[in-house]
Fold this sequence. Notes:
Elements: H1 2-58, H2 62-73, E1 78-85, E2 90-93, H3 106-114, E3 118-124, E4 127-137, E5 142-151, H4 153-204, H5 223-251, H6 259-270, E6 275-278, E7 285-289, E8 292-296, H7 301-313, E9 315-320, E10 335-338, E11 345-350, H8 354-374, H9 384-404, E12 412-416, H10 423-430, E13 435-439, H11 447-450, H12 456-463, E14 468-471, H13 474-487, E15 491-493, E16 498-501, E17 504-510, H14 527-538, E18 544-551, H15 558-571, E19 579-586, H16 593-613, E20 621-625, H17 630-639, E21 642-645, H18 654-662, E22 669-673, E23 686-688, H19 693-705, H20 708-724, H21 727-739, H22 743-747
Parallel strand pairs: 6-9, 6-12, 9-11, 12-13, 13-14, 14-17, 18-19, 18-21, 19-20, 21-22, 22-23
Antiparallel strand pairs: 1-2, 1-5, 3-4, 4-5, 7-8, 10-11, 15-16, 16-17
The structure holds 6-O-phosphono-beta-D-fructofuranose (F6P).
The site of 6-O-phosphono-beta-D-fructofuranose (F6P) has 12 residues, from α7.
Amino acid sequence: xxxxxxxxxxxxxxxxxVAVVFSFYQVSNENDRLTDELKRRTIILAESLQETxxxxxxxxxxxxxxxxxxRFGNRERLKGIIVYDNQGNVLTSTxxxxxKISQPLPDALSSITENRPxxxxxxxxxxxxxxxxxxxxxxxxxxxxxxIFHDASYIDVRLKDIWENNLIRFLTLSxxxxxxxxLVVRWSITxxxxxxxxxxxxxxAGKGKSKQPIAFSRGDVLAPLISEVxxxxxxxxxxxxxxxxxxxxxxxAEALWTANRLKEHMRVELGGKKLFLISNREPYMHIQDGSxxxxxxxxxxxxxxxxxxxRACDGVWIAHGSEDADRETVDENNKLxxxxxxxxxxxxxxxxxxxxxxxxxxxxxxxxIWPLCHITHTRPIFRLEDWVYYQKVNEKFxxxxxxxxxxxxxxxxxxxxxxxxxxxxxxxxxxPDAKVAIFWHIPWPNPEAYGICPWRQEILIGMLGxxxxxxxxxxxCNNFLDTVDRFLESKINWEQFSVERGGHITRVNPYPIxxxxxxxxxxxxxxxQRKEQLLKEIGVQARYLGxxxxxxxxxxGIPERFRAIERFLEKYPEFVGEFTFVELGxxxxxxxxxYRELMTEVEEMVDKINWxxxxxxxxxxxxxxxxxxxxxINRFYKASDICMVTSLHDGMNLVAKEFIVSRDNEDGxxxxxxxxxxxxxxxxxxxxxxxxxxxAADAIHLSLTMETSESSxxxxxxxxxxxxxxxxxxxxxxxxxxxxxxxxxxxx
Length: 748
Ligand code: F6P
């Protein structure tokens, strides 16, 4: 209210000032104008009267003079006339006038003496009167004077009117100012502020979150304030929502990890530091597609799992640029920001020669360590030249990483997989302050199996350079500690699960990797319609659909799976013509003989089984040999009745978890090998031994005939597991453990 009164008083004061100044000006103008007019009229009258009066004075015709004075004395506003002789004596006068004028009249005497007209104002009967004295003469001397008395009080009346009119105008204006100011202030300021305050009060109390703030037009006096406060309110709402969400999650056993939570967690834990990630496989590959360049994401769990983490955390991912258009898409520092559609982190590509790629990747990593760790009856091959390249490429990646972390204090480094067993030590030797973890995505064998590697000690020493070594499951951690115990001089703490060697401690922990459980990404659609559409696309008529998604790798148990399907159709012939299995198989590591042989074996098996059972409109197996994008794979996941994961040995297997995430209709069966890391978590899958063809065939039958109520219960439970144990939780746990290592632990 105070502001309104101040505004009104100020406005009225200004208006009053303006009114007074203008009134003065107007009054003075009017006064001048009317006075001039009065004088002009009086002079004209005096001069014309003088012509008549002069001869009569000369001839001393007093009666005639009396008549003339009487006649003129009756005029409007003319008070009277007096005629004087040359001594200033009154010759004649308007009758009423004489008693009111003291004689002799000084102005008359002066006018006669000085022979000039004299005028002025006197007061008669309390009214202002204008007096004009005009002397007249014959040829030689002054013979008399004529005095005219004119009423001037009408001028005062007129001036008073002006003052009064202006006062009324001022009062009216003031009243309008008061009313308009009150309305404007109410509409534009106090009203909205009151509304706004109410909205903020509700917000503070946590009630107004859903309400929108009052809309203000552009340029409105409060608009900038509103926009700022709206911002503030939004942050408040988000903070409220987060706090509520956190509180809700705290009620559950453990809080749910999300991309945002990981981001926030990283901010707190790392204080804004970047994450440095190294893997052989790059998350985005550029390939020449005719005359254009195509960007694809590679098959395999590593990228599926880690791309969301890097998106959430930012940082630098260093990887081998293996594809034909990779060089064309980087800058002069071999870097680019990815993902292409929504850049969130940096990918730095490392170039390898053909020899390096052959020796390090195809040779030592995939013909040596891969079969060594998987134990799937494919004999590992260890060549000295491969080992030399393996060391060389590890050094090459170490150099690139050391360059990237040169300006970082205690950087966090996450090394991925069996391609870089030597990298942890190479980094720690140069940067003891770096916090280094290596995550081993494949199984770790028992010491006997591992012991056949000619460079078994070098590999272990290289890995133990890390502060943390991660495996998917405890069983692999145990195998690793057993292996270290067998082949290296070191102190193993079985309670802490750590190895101390040369004063440096390495913790060995399980971190079961997972996928992003992004519910919003999956849309609900009619499952039957979806299945029909897919079957139409692949040219098959069937009632039941099964799916398998793999790199064509001998560890995935693909021939075993097909054998199980064949046996299922033999055992349960009622499903012939009814059940089709689609294998989405991505060719992998095809420069390696064993992989080429496997591809041939798989294709021949598909041909054989299809030849045996096919009908005109149906076949049991559709082998789609290609690299398939996430979207396409998802379509098959969503439309299938069952998904088969039959690995002979697998660190985790993320296909199993991806299938579960895609099943937002909470149905569908997962047939899962007991030799996958995933089988430890997904206990509601139909668990099989993929080598046991008879049991696997029965598992397919069980899955296809299972009551919907049961399959749905199982899927719900598995979805709850994957939702909680998602990739952000994996990253959150691993990064937290790494970030919280004390300086004493890492200095070694
Ligand atoms: O499963 C082990 C693994 O190295 C994954 O980490 C990776 O996603 C997959 O194999 C793919 O292998 P590559 O990069 O050789 O195609």
